[in-house]
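Hi R.,

Quick one: here's the Proteasome inhibitor PI31 subunit sequence you asked about.
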Amino acid sequence: MESPSVSKTGNDFFYGWDLLYKTVQSDVYKKADLLIALVHFLLTKHYNFRCVGVGDDKTLPEEEGSELLPDSWNDDDTKYSLRYVHDKQLYLLLGHITEDALLVNMMDINTKKVSNICLTPDTLVVVVKGSINTVMPTASEIVDRYRKELLDPVFTGNSREVTTQTTTSTTAPRADPLRIGEPRRPGSYTPYGYDPRPFGFPDIGRGDLDPLGRGGPGNLFSFPSRPDMGPGPVPRFDPFSPLNPNAGRGPNPDHMRPPNWDSDYFM
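And here's the predicted structure, written out as tokens:
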């Protein structure tokens, strides 16, 4: 359960307070009683605690508890001792009244965590009879202090369900240009950062970028294989046509003769 936020819920946060107050209003006779009743309301409604009686016994009871304040909860003039159960764990709420202050302690019996808060009943409680806004005009601020100073230090991880989503991001490893490996496709080599054959141009010259000599003949086209040349290595030469190395291996017979060819054939 998420921590309650009074400022966001507004008056709905105190829905149910009137019912609790009616069950104890005949017993309330001092201002500190209303401050203890308010923290009890916060525990039972918004933190799913159940009250299992009065006292400071640290033995976990078998009873489930109640959302009501037990009998004799404020019989003592100077102190309060209430026991609560939450998720099969026992907690003690202890209050002590001094001359002008109310000191409240909360203790987790299992973890031994203790929190405390100091309140001034005379300034926070106007009267002991009436609606929540009448008796405690700053009830929202008091609840915020209860949550931050008294409850959160003790109930971290216990009063709310924390859902942790683990986001696994798979990042493809970057290619290492110094790593020796197989070419990206047969007969070619693409250095890191180069797009293979952009715009469909022939894959010419990439062999010169490979220090290991992979990827073809480089800037020179390989001489076309001919059956009459026999076995063995085939020489290379600059092609007449950069797009078709097999075309045009000699003067084109359709070319026109030079000027004055018939008269000056020594030209």
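Residues 6-155 form a domain with the Protein Transport Mog1p; Chain A fold (CATH 3.40.1000.30).

Cheers,
M.
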